[in-house]
Amino acid sequence: MIPVQRTPLYEEHVRLGAKMAPFGGWEMPIQYRGILPEHEATRTASTMFDICHMGELEVKGPTATADLERLLTLSVSTLKPGQCRYGYLLRDDGGVLDDLTCYKFDDEHYWLVVNAATAGRDADWIRVHLSEETEFEDISSRIAKLDIQGPTSRQGIEKAIGAALPDLPYFYSEPIRVMGIDCLLSRTGYTGEWGYELYFPAAEAVSFWRLFLESGIQPAGLGARDTLRLEVGYPLYGHELRETQSPVAAARGNFIARDKAFIGKATVLRELSDGVPRYLAAIALDGKRAARDGDRLFTDAGEVGVVTSGSLAPSLGHAIALAYLDAGLCEPGTRLEVDLRGKRLPCVVVTLPFYKQGTARNKKTTG
Amino acid sequence: MESPRNLRYTNTHEWVKGTKELKVGITEFAQEQLGELTFVELPAVGDSFAAQEEVGVVESVKAASDFYAPVSGTISAVNEELQDRPELINSDPYGEGWIFKITPDDEAELDQLMNADEYEEILPQDD
Fold first, then answer.
1. Inter-chain contact A34–B36, Cβ cutoff 8 Å?
2. What is the pLDDT averaged over residues A257-274?
3. Which of A16, A71, A214, B26 measures 20 to 30 Å from B108, CA to CA?
4. Domain interval for residue A285
């Protein structure tokens, strides 16, 4: 068995009284004060998340662009320096090995930011599909990552570091210096709010964490991260995305550049053209009782779908779920029932995002 | 964590108070494990249950968990306050967070329940 890993911030979490639990092979903070107040603080102010468990893979060299173009579903060659883009790493049969963000620094230098549980497998897959001249390194253990998210995150970071942040458009990054240390800041995140992901040397993890904490940015755990991402309909690898299924059912044609060759493309094109039996759908329940991963959806005709993620949506006051649902029933407004361990509750197909007031894409910070 | 000495306990983490009419809730350990409660499904007054039968559901942001009848009997009251304020179970599990009252069919069944020392024996030791 692989031993559970700890981020450089483990002791900080314990000191703050966090509830710790395993996630993706790592012992991670699930909550500090509570999932509900941490969720609320992210929607209305700002919070920081220890995301050191996620992987960073560095790809360099004159053949890097062409190699990544072939490995990823997203368009790599159209990225501008400093831009980043979300997409998938697929197997030959189209199965999703991972969902990731590709950061471009220049034509010969990229980072892939990948999920914790899949980072090793991704690295193995990528290594064997690179040209000889392409340099590859898994730099995950050297890089710390803090996500600082929420409408006041810009002001919060500026106050902590005593300097103004660059005006970054959504999904762009820029190098910045914090306490004399070179870092990478991107305007990205997994909460639906205006926010940043900050990458920096792992040796600075504790000092940066304390800097932000002492300047008033509250920590939030993976519990709130999950309710925040679910409210805006972002998929979670292992729930909505998996190795045995192409991304078509989850994302239809999104995050897929059809005008280039990539591994897994044949399956993706066929499924886009023929359709698949079930698509990812957004489901709303009336009450607070939540459907969970694996709960089944029904109509009078029988079973029509299965839930992949579900929770109370704290910002909405009722339960929500993502589910794979029969293609003919995905129209918003369609009434269904969900079976919660023998009890059937009514639910309805709705449009994503569930929570529509997120500030992530705003032109100006609202804080 | 210290469990009140005047209560009896089940191995499914309910506490039980009284003899003729039993007041039942979930323990400090159970609420701590579940985290912030968001929903409680209560039984109906007058419903009858066998010992260890599912009586209702408590649900937190992360998980749902059944609670069970500590003895065979009939529900005589439920804590309606929990419909709007399930978090009372978190803040005061042995007081305002009580869940239901049950009248036992046979008071002798109470002998099957654990005392506080016995209950603490079944809790994980590392906390």
1. yes
2. 98
3. B26
4. 277-360
pLDDT digits (tens, 9 = 90+) for B53-66: 999 999 999 889 99
Q: Look up the ipTM and state it.
A: 0.86
CATH of the domain at A16: 3.30.1360.120
Structure tokens given for A280: 């990812």
Helix (H) or strand (E) holding A211: helix A205-214
pTM, full prediction: 0.94
Q: Which of B59, B61, B64 has the CB atom closest to A36's CB atom?
A: B61
* List of chain A residues whose C-beta atoms are within 8 Å of the C-beta of residue B62: 30, 35, 223, 311
- B61, A311: Cβ pair inside 8 Å? yes
d(CA A299, CA A310): 19
B50 touches chain A (CB under 8 A): no
Q: B62 and A34: CB-CB below 8 Å?
A: no
Encoding tokens for residue A168? 């970054």
Q: Return the residue matching tokens 């030791």.
A: B125
DSSP character at residue B95: T
- Taking contacts as CB-CB distances below 8 angstroms, the residues of chain A near B29 are none
* CA angle A26–A32–A35, rounded 5-degree value: 95
Beta bridge partners of A201: A143
Does residue A367 lie in a domain region?
no
Q: Are A43 and A353 in contact (CB under 8 A)?
A: no
Tokens describing residue A277? 């039996």
pLDDT band at A1 (very low <50, low <70, confident <90, very high): low
